[in-house]
Design brief:
InterPro entries: YqzM. With about 45 residues, the chain is mainly alpha-helical. About 65% of the residues lie in helices and about 0% in strands. The longest helix has 29 residues.
């Protein structure tokens, strides 16, 4: 038996879901920063 796999697992959620949520949040933040930069560039013309 793997010593890291105890009998009382605290969280049984799928890691792929958490990874997808993390990717979506970071992608959204970078997209938001990019759109703000585009808006500032267009407004300064």
């Amino acid at each position: 038996m793997n010593p890291f796999e105890g009998k009382n697992i605290q969280c049984r959620r799928n890691d792929a879901i958490d990874s997808g949520v993390g990717f979506g949040v970071s992608f959204g933040m970078f997209t938001l920063m990019f759109l703000i930069a585009i808006i500032v560039e267009v407004a300064s013309r």
